Amino acid sequence: MAMREIRVIPDPVLRTPCEEITTIDDRVRALVEDLVETVDDDGRAGLAAPQIGVSLRAFSWNIEDEIGYVLNPRITALSEDEYQDGEEGCLSVPGLWYPTTRAWYARVEGIDLDGKPVVVEGTELMARALQHECDHLDGMLYLDRLEKSVRRKAMRELRSQL
């Protein structure tokens, strides 16, 4: 296992949609170990494979002292009439926090390292993390979800840091 370096914007891997995992081999097992090891640090709620430079559909989470992972996750349910607004940040966009609207509840389905079905669901912070990490796997950042005026401000601040 290894604590991996976090890729930051404008690294192109963060904007690349990830490939499905078709074979669970030693490479995928090592990826999961690295995702779990790297997310297990103060202030980290989730970590997607592209954030450590790997364009495969996998992420880990660290919510309320529970650490886990899922392979080939897909969002299968979101609350349609309950939302949460709150400051959101990203390890790949360091130092920027902006109000981001997310569904209050989310459910993700995928598989584990044995190829068995996995369902991960939750509300509030867990729901936010599930949505955030699935966005990463589709080549999106939370900045893409900001309201237009807030996004302009965020992009100005980001450019000033680069």
From TrEMBL:
The active site is at E133. The keyword Metal-binding applies. InterPro entries: Peptide_deformylase (IPR023635), Peptide_deformylase_sf (IPR036821). Binds 1 Fe(2+) ion. It comes from the Bacteria. Fe cation binds at C90, H132, H136. One of its GO terms (biological process) is translation. It catalyses: N-terminal N-formyl-L-methionyl-[peptide] + H2O = N-terminal L-methionyl-[peptide] + formate. Its cofactor is Fe(2+). Keywords: Hydrolase, Iron, Metal-binding, Protein biosynthesis. The keyword Lipoprotein does not apply. Coiled coil: none annotated. Its EC number is 3.5.1.88. It holds the Pfam family Pep_deformylase. Removes the formyl group from the N-terminal Met of newly synthesized proteins. Requires at least a dipeptide for an efficient rate of reaction. N-terminal L-methionine is a prerequisite for activity but the enzyme has broad specificity at other positions. Belongs to the polypeptide deformylase family. PANTHER family: PEPTIDE DEFORMYLASE (PTHR10458), PEPTIDE DEFORMYLASE, MITOCHONDRIAL (PTHR10458:SF2). This is Peptide deformylase. The lineage of its organism: Bacteria, Bacillati, Actinomycetota, Actinomycetes, Micrococcales.
